[in-house]
Hints:
Layout: E1 3-6, E2 26-27, E3 30-31, H1 32-41, E4 46-53, H2 58-64, E5 71-75, H3 80-88, E6 97-100, H4 110-123, E7 125-131, E8 136-139, E9 145-149, E10 155-157, E11 161-164, H5 165-178, H6 185-191, E12 197-200, H7 211-225
Amino acid sequence: xNFAVIIPSAGTGSRSGRDIPKQYVEIxxxxxxxxxxxxxxxxxxxAEIIIPIDERWRDVAVRCAAGIxxxxxxxxxNQRGASIANGxxxxxxxxxxxxxxxxxxPCVSRxxxxxxxxxxxxxxxxxxxxPINETVKRVDEQEIILETIPRGSLRxxxxxxxxxxDLLERAYAHAxxxxxxxxxxxxxxxxxxxxxxxxxxxxxxxxxxxPIDFERAEKVLxxxxx
Length: 226
Protein backbone atom coordinates (compact mmCIF):
# COMPACT_ATOMS: atom_id res chain seq x y z
CA UNK A 1 0.00 0.00 0.00
CA ASN A 2 1.25 3.50 -0.83
CA PHE A 3 1.40 6.01 1.96
CA ALA A 4 2.92 9.36 2.89
CA VAL A 5 4.57 10.32 6.16
CA ILE A 6 4.45 13.76 7.75
CA ILE A 7 7.23 14.37 10.27
CA PRO A 8 6.67 17.76 11.96
CA SER A 9 10.10 19.21 12.75
CA ALA A 10 9.53 22.89 13.45
CA GLY A 11 9.56 22.68 17.24
CA THR A 12 12.33 23.80 19.58
CA GLY A 13 12.27 20.99 22.16
CA SER A 14 12.98 23.38 25.05
CA ARG A 15 13.00 20.65 27.73
CA SER A 16 15.79 18.68 26.07
CA GLY A 17 18.53 20.69 27.74
CA ARG A 18 20.33 21.37 24.45
CA ASP A 19 21.02 24.69 22.78
CA ILE A 20 19.68 23.49 19.42
CA PRO A 21 16.33 21.85 18.59
CA LYS A 22 16.37 18.24 19.80
CA GLN A 23 15.67 16.83 16.34
CA TYR A 24 19.06 18.13 15.19
CA VAL A 25 21.13 16.81 18.10
CA GLU A 26 23.44 14.03 16.91
CA ILE A 27 23.14 10.42 18.03
CA UNK A 28 25.64 7.90 16.66
CA UNK A 29 26.97 10.51 14.26
CA UNK A 30 23.63 11.55 12.76
CA UNK A 31 20.97 14.05 13.84
CA UNK A 32 17.87 12.57 15.47
CA UNK A 33 15.80 13.65 12.45
CA UNK A 34 18.08 11.72 10.09
CA UNK A 35 17.46 8.51 12.03
CA UNK A 36 13.72 9.16 11.98
CA UNK A 37 13.67 9.79 8.23
CA UNK A 38 15.59 6.57 7.58
CA UNK A 39 13.07 4.56 9.56
CA UNK A 40 10.55 5.28 6.78
CA UNK A 41 12.54 6.02 3.62
CA UNK A 42 13.21 2.40 2.72
CA UNK A 43 9.83 1.08 3.83
CA UNK A 44 7.83 -0.59 1.02
CA UNK A 45 5.06 1.69 -0.19
CA UNK A 46 6.46 4.90 1.30
CA ALA A 47 5.75 7.34 -1.52
CA GLU A 48 6.47 10.66 0.19
CA ILE A 49 8.03 12.02 3.36
CA ILE A 50 6.87 15.55 4.13
CA ILE A 51 8.82 17.49 6.75
CA PRO A 52 7.50 20.83 8.06
CA ILE A 53 10.49 22.79 9.36
CA ASP A 54 11.55 26.07 10.88
CA GLU A 55 13.21 27.78 7.91
CA ARG A 56 16.09 28.90 10.10
CA TRP A 57 17.17 25.25 10.27
CA ARG A 58 16.57 24.34 6.62
CA ASP A 59 20.23 23.64 5.81
CA VAL A 60 20.54 21.16 8.69
CA ALA A 61 17.21 19.54 7.84
CA VAL A 62 18.22 19.10 4.20
CA ARG A 63 21.42 17.37 5.26
CA CYS A 64 19.33 14.96 7.35
CA ALA A 65 17.64 13.78 4.16
CA ALA A 66 20.74 13.60 1.97
CA GLY A 67 20.35 10.99 -0.75
CA ILE A 68 16.64 10.38 -0.10
CA UNK A 69 14.64 11.68 -3.06
CA UNK A 70 11.12 11.25 -1.67
CA UNK A 71 11.55 13.97 0.97
CA UNK A 72 9.82 17.34 0.63
CA UNK A 73 10.31 20.22 3.06
CA UNK A 74 7.54 22.71 3.81
CA UNK A 75 7.27 25.65 6.15
CA UNK A 76 6.27 24.73 9.69
CA UNK A 77 3.57 26.58 11.57
CA ASN A 78 3.60 28.27 14.95
CA GLN A 79 1.81 25.20 16.37
CA ARG A 80 2.10 21.51 15.61
CA GLY A 81 -1.33 21.41 14.01
CA ALA A 82 -0.44 24.17 11.57
CA SER A 83 2.65 22.23 10.53
CA ILE A 84 0.62 19.08 9.86
CA ALA A 85 -1.92 21.08 7.86
CA ASN A 86 0.90 22.52 5.73
CA GLY A 87 2.19 19.02 5.14
CA UNK A 88 -1.23 17.67 4.16
CA UNK A 89 -1.60 20.41 1.58
CA UNK A 90 1.32 19.19 -0.55
CA UNK A 91 0.82 15.42 -0.50
CA UNK A 92 0.20 13.93 -3.94
CA UNK A 93 -3.44 13.16 -4.71
CA UNK A 94 -2.70 9.48 -5.39
CA UNK A 95 -1.83 8.87 -1.72
CA UNK A 96 -4.71 7.48 0.34
CA UNK A 97 -3.01 6.76 3.69
CA UNK A 98 -1.11 9.28 5.80
CA UNK A 99 1.17 8.59 8.73
CA UNK A 100 2.10 11.32 11.18
CA UNK A 101 5.22 10.67 13.25
CA UNK A 102 7.16 12.68 15.83
CA UNK A 103 10.59 13.78 14.63
CA UNK A 104 11.93 12.98 18.10
CA UNK A 105 10.99 9.27 17.93
CA PRO A 106 14.01 7.92 16.03
CA CYS A 107 13.69 4.36 17.37
CA VAL A 108 10.42 3.41 15.68
CA SER A 109 10.63 -0.13 14.32
CA ARG A 110 9.46 -1.46 10.98
CA UNK A 111 7.25 -3.97 12.76
CA UNK A 112 5.38 -1.16 14.50
CA UNK A 113 5.02 0.84 11.28
CA UNK A 114 3.61 -2.24 9.54
CA UNK A 115 1.08 -2.90 12.32
CA UNK A 116 -0.16 0.67 12.35
CA UNK A 117 -0.42 0.77 8.55
CA UNK A 118 -2.40 -2.45 8.45
CA UNK A 119 -4.86 -1.21 11.10
CA UNK A 120 -5.13 2.22 9.50
CA UNK A 121 -5.91 0.72 6.11
CA UNK A 122 -8.53 -1.59 7.63
CA UNK A 123 -10.28 0.80 10.01
CA UNK A 124 -9.46 4.27 8.69
CA UNK A 125 -7.63 5.49 11.79
CA UNK A 126 -5.15 3.73 14.06
CA UNK A 127 -2.46 4.63 16.57
CA UNK A 128 0.05 2.72 18.71
CA UNK A 129 -0.30 3.02 22.46
CA UNK A 130 1.04 1.47 25.66
CA PRO A 131 -0.55 0.61 29.00
CA ILE A 132 0.21 2.98 31.86
CA ASN A 133 2.18 1.26 34.64
CA GLU A 134 2.25 4.03 37.21
CA THR A 135 -0.63 5.04 39.47
CA VAL A 136 -2.26 8.13 37.97
CA LYS A 137 -3.34 11.11 40.08
CA ARG A 138 -5.32 14.19 39.12
CA VAL A 139 -4.21 17.31 41.00
CA ASP A 140 -5.28 20.93 41.30
CA GLU A 141 -3.26 24.14 40.85
CA GLN A 142 -1.72 23.72 44.30
CA GLU A 143 -0.56 20.16 43.50
CA ILE A 144 -3.13 18.69 45.88
CA ILE A 145 -4.49 15.31 44.80
CA LEU A 146 -8.11 15.43 43.74
CA GLU A 147 -8.52 11.79 42.73
CA THR A 148 -6.76 8.60 41.76
CA ILE A 149 -7.72 7.58 38.24
CA PRO A 150 -8.19 3.86 37.50
CA ARG A 151 -5.52 3.03 34.95
CA GLY A 152 -6.89 -0.22 33.50
CA SER A 153 -8.41 1.48 30.45
CA LEU A 154 -5.76 4.21 30.10
CA ARG A 155 -3.15 4.18 27.35
CA UNK A 156 -0.17 6.38 26.51
CA UNK A 157 -0.38 7.34 22.83
CA UNK A 158 2.61 7.06 20.52
CA UNK A 159 3.30 7.72 16.86
CA UNK A 160 3.22 6.94 13.98
CA UNK A 161 -0.51 7.54 13.78
CA UNK A 162 -2.21 6.40 10.57
CA UNK A 163 -5.32 7.80 8.88
CA UNK A 164 -7.17 7.66 5.62
CA UNK A 165 -6.15 10.85 3.91
CA ASP A 166 -9.71 12.15 3.49
CA LEU A 167 -10.45 11.53 7.17
CA LEU A 168 -7.39 13.43 8.35
CA GLU A 169 -8.18 16.30 6.00
CA ARG A 170 -11.73 16.50 7.38
CA ALA A 171 -10.36 16.44 10.92
CA TYR A 172 -8.03 19.35 10.24
CA ALA A 173 -10.73 21.35 8.46
CA HIS A 174 -13.03 20.82 11.44
CA ALA A 175 -10.26 21.81 13.88
CA UNK A 176 -9.51 24.99 11.94
CA UNK A 177 -13.19 25.95 11.80
CA UNK A 178 -13.68 25.43 15.54
CA UNK A 179 -10.24 26.64 16.73
CA UNK A 180 -9.42 23.24 18.22
CA UNK A 181 -5.83 22.66 19.33
CA UNK A 182 -4.70 19.12 20.11
CA UNK A 183 -1.45 17.40 21.03
CA UNK A 184 -1.98 14.54 18.60
CA UNK A 185 -3.89 13.87 15.40
CA UNK A 186 -6.10 11.13 16.81
CA UNK A 187 -7.70 13.72 19.10
CA UNK A 188 -8.87 15.69 16.07
CA UNK A 189 -10.33 12.59 14.44
CA UNK A 190 -12.11 11.80 17.71
CA UNK A 191 -13.67 15.28 17.58
CA UNK A 192 -15.43 14.19 14.38
CA UNK A 193 -17.01 11.29 16.24
CA UNK A 194 -14.95 8.77 14.27
CA UNK A 195 -13.43 5.66 15.81
CA UNK A 196 -9.68 5.36 16.23
CA UNK A 197 -8.25 1.87 16.74
CA UNK A 198 -5.32 1.19 19.05
CA UNK A 199 -2.54 -1.27 18.27
CA UNK A 200 0.12 -2.32 20.73
CA UNK A 201 2.96 0.19 20.89
CA UNK A 202 6.60 -0.47 21.72
CA UNK A 203 8.52 0.59 24.82
CA UNK A 204 11.59 1.22 22.66
CA UNK A 205 9.63 3.73 20.57
CA UNK A 206 10.53 6.47 23.02
CA UNK A 207 10.07 10.17 22.41
CA UNK A 208 13.13 12.28 23.16
CA UNK A 209 11.98 14.97 25.57
CA UNK A 210 14.44 15.21 28.48
CA PRO A 211 18.27 15.17 28.44
CA ILE A 212 18.42 11.52 29.58
CA ASP A 213 16.34 10.45 26.58
CA PHE A 214 19.23 11.01 24.17
CA GLU A 215 21.23 8.34 25.98
CA ARG A 216 18.25 5.97 26.03
CA ALA A 217 17.66 6.40 22.29
CA GLU A 218 21.34 5.89 21.54
CA LYS A 219 21.30 2.55 23.39
CA VAL A 220 18.27 1.35 21.43
CA LEU A 221 19.78 2.35 18.08
CA UNK A 222 23.16 0.89 18.97
CA UNK A 223 21.60 -2.44 19.92
CA UNK A 224 20.01 -2.68 16.45
CA UNK A 225 23.41 -2.25 14.81
CA UNK A 226 24.90 -5.18 16.73
